[in-house]
Amino acid sequence: xxxxDHVSQLEHWLEDLTRKWExxxxxxxxxxxPPDRExxxxxxxxxxxxxxxxxxxxxxxxxxxLLQRFMTYNQxxxxxxxxxxxxxxxxxxxxxxxxxxxxxxxxxxxxxxxxYQALHRRYLEALQASGSRASVNFDRFRETLEKQRTLFExxxxxxxxxxxxxxxxxxxxxxxxxxxxx
Length: 182
What we know:
Helix content: 55-70%
Shape: rod-shaped
Order of helices and strands: HHHHHEE
Low-confidence stretches: 103-113
Structural class: mainly alpha
């Protein structure tokens, strides 16, 4: 295979790799992990071809452009990965801090709208901090908690309030309950 064919093939591989990274950062479920293996393989192949036989000036120019583009993309991907990890770590710390800071404030969520609204706001903030893009309708949120309260009370359990907690990557609303004495 001649050198121009190598450069064209490498350009095509770089385009494919760029699309995979974009899909990874867009949280495409088909690409759950960074395409590092493909990136390493392309980097190895670029090194091999760039060290190959002398090329014409035009081929050398295309190869240099390709190498520079790869290096620029590589730096971008590494920075985005680092930013994503830092955001995840910061979000996790913020959610834990919010959960522990809000626990006393959530000690007793009254049935009136203000209590549910505050809890709903904390729940949405915790979801956002965990990286979730979920949106929860306030009326449905309140209805669900009222049903949960009713179910507990039917079993002889008193609901003292609700807390927003994070378990791993999931954010949940848990009822704080106390068994009624018989």
